[in-house]
Specification:
By secondary structure, the chain is of the alpha/beta class. The protein has 16 helices and 7 strands. The strands form 2 sheets. It has a 4-stranded mixed sheet with strand order 2-1-3-4, covered by helices on one side. Strands 5-6-7 form a 3-stranded parallel sheet, sandwiched between helices. Helix 14 (325-340) links the parallel strand 6 and strand 7. It is globular and about 65 Å long. The chain starts with 21 loop residues before the first helix and ends with a helix.
Length: 387
């Protein structure tokens, strides 16, 4: 069975299309038990179907609808809304070229033309042998490699003609592309423009190649802030963060303490409240989250633990864009390390999107998590108050 970590371009077939082996059925059913509510696993289940069959057929939709006990039109809406899913078979080697502003200006159209010429098929169509397909992606979160491209969700780098030709040649020779076993870190982000002479804060320890590991993170002082936070009441943590003037890394730079303060106290809530880290960045020039997650995942985990205690969260979630395959593996390994070390006081759930640009919007992200299409909600009420 092909799994999420087996993205060989040179292997695979269309057997079992519309049908599932017992092992596959068990995996699909396991998504109903992964998260607090069964429906939250439906997008991940459909991701598995897409990977196994290279498309989601109407028969597969019916199976998923029955499994999750939802109307068939609801599943069909997901399949036809999220770009990750296809109703016609994608190539075993599925190439995506980013077309967002940064990549467009850097020549993504030339890269797509190169693939069209080399493969002899139009965008979104598989080659006659089923080996290749290519498509433009709204954003891959890799502006530092503009125009960026991925193969089966794995970031390769800049989509030059030579780089694309290498991928095609490797796949035709039967090699796995890309090599997922080469390590957990991606290529070094490229410096474009003048280097900053400022003091490093977020990137202070990035020179340590092992920073993604628990041992290295602790060596750099990791989890000491979490140890301190555990001795403090929720209100005191919020007050401390407000005093520090810590701000979010989003475009608005909203004060973190002020945002946390808008969450109602636990005693006044009627429903569970969850903390969600939005790792579905999809804006021109944004790739900071990708770098942070692959270099320093434990910093994200520690920050979530502190924030979760401050707002008395009932659960912790990281929603990561589906194109961040490597970063997802790094995060899963880091969460596992922290859990085994007894650091986590509650589970941290990781959920993946399905290539919808709009899922980076906070309320659209929540809709995706709830097993719906990513359709933004109109506030009020705001997510911090009403979820």
């Amino acid at each position: 069975m092909k799994t999420a970590k087996q993205t060989s371009c040179g292997e695979g077939s269309m057997e079992n299309r519309g049908l599932f082996t017992r092992e596959q059925q068990e995996r699909l059913a396991s998504w109903k038990k992964r998260y607090p509510y069964p429906i939250m696993g439906i997008v991940e289940a459909l991701r598995d179907v897409q990977q196994w069959h290279r498309s989601v057929s109407l028969e597969a939709e019916a199976h998923v609808a029955e499994l999750f006990q939802v109307p068939l039109p609801q599943v069909h809406e997901l399949v036809t809304f999220y770009p990750y899913f296809t109703t016609e078979p994608a190539g075993r080697c599925r190439i995506q070229v980013c077309r967002n502003l940064s990549c467009h200006l850097a020549g993504s159209a030339r890269a797509l033309d190169h693939l069209r010429s080399s493969l002899g098929v139009e965008e979104g169509r598989a080659t006659p042998d089923g080996l290749f397909s290519y498509e433009a992606a709204e954003c891959l979160g890799a502006c530092d490699f503009a125009p960026a491209f991925t193969v089966n969700d794995e970031l390769i780098g800049e989509a030059t003609g030579a780089a694309l030709d290498r991928v095609l040649a490797r796949a035709r020779s039967g090699e796995t592309a890309p090599d997922e076993n080469a390590g957990v870190r991606a290529e070094e982000p490229r410096q474009r423009g003048g280097a900053s002479s400022g003091v490093r804060i977020v990137m202070e320890h990035f020179d340590d190649a092992q920073l993604h590991s628990l041992e290295a993170y602790r060596r750099a002082g990791g989890y000491r802030a979490w140890e301190k936070a555990q001795t403090m009441e929720a209100g005191r943590i919020v007050a401390e963060v407000k005093k520090s003037n810590l701000r979010g890394l989003g475009g608005a730079g909203f004060p973190s303490g002020m945002k946390w303060e808008t969450v109602p106290p636990k005693k006044d809530r009627r429903t569970p409240h969850y903390l969600v880290a939005n790792a579905d960045e999809s804006e021109p020039g944004c790739f900071k989250d990708r770098i942070l997650m692959e270099r320093n995942p434990h910093a994200l985990i520690e920050g979530m633990l502190i924030a979760g205690r401050a707002i008395e969260a009932d659960g912790l979630f990281i929603f990561i864009r589906g194109e961040y395959a490597r970063q997802n593996r790094v995060l899963e390994a880091a969460v596992r390390e922290a859990s085994e070390a007894g650091i986590l006081k509650q589970n941290i759930f990781i959920m993946r999107g399905a290539s919808a640009y709009i899922s980076g919007c906070d309320t659209a992200l929540l809709e995706t998590m709830e097993g719906k299409k990513a359709w933004p909600r109109q506030p009020p009420p705001f997510p911090t108050v009403n979820g």
